[in-house]
Write a structure and sequence with these properties.
There is one protein chain. The chain has 126 residues and is mostly helical. It has one domain (28-125): Cytochrome Bc1 Complex, Chain D, domain 2, CATH 1.10.760. Helices cover 54% and strands 0% of the residues. The longest helix is centred in the N-terminal third of the chain and has 23 residues, at 2-24.
């Protein structure tokens, strides 16, 4: 009985250790998820990628994600804040955008995608 208990403890320890290794090094899918979200939510107004299916319907289009990514003050934190707090209203329509009503985790992956475009060539991000 003691041998079985020791073997079971060893197996559980191994499984837990593997779980910790995976948790520390998860595959980074945030940029890909952010790109998918950008195409779905943002491409009506912005050029979010060179290969997006349709041109923005907003004319002239809002700044491209490539341009936004390469602005000197742009950070992932500033993007998350902007995405989560900026709302459209008739008085400030020229400087704000509609409220996308995103969850913080969605704003984070969208910001990761935009930041991935920093220093990209125009062909990659436009």
């Amino acid at each position: 009985m003691r041998t079985i208990a020791c073997a079971l403890a060893a197996v559980l320890a191994t499984l837990c250790a593997c779980g910790r290794v995976q948790a520390r090094n998860p595959p980074d899918t945030s940029v890909a998820r952010g790109g998918d979200l950008a195409r779905l939510v943002c491409s009506d107004c912005h050029v979010v990628a060179a290969d997006q299916d349709f041109a923005p319907v907003l004319q002239p289009p809002a700044p491209s994600f490539l341009d936004i990514a390469n602005r000197p003050g742009t950070t992932a934190k500033s993007l998350r804040q902007f995405i989560l707090t900026t709302h459209w209203n008739m008085k400030s329509a020229r400087v704000t955008m509609p409220n996308p009503k995103m969850r913080p985790e969605d704003a984070a992956v969208l910001a990761a995608y935009i930041m991935s475009l920093r220093n990209a060539s125009p062909r990659q991000g436009r």
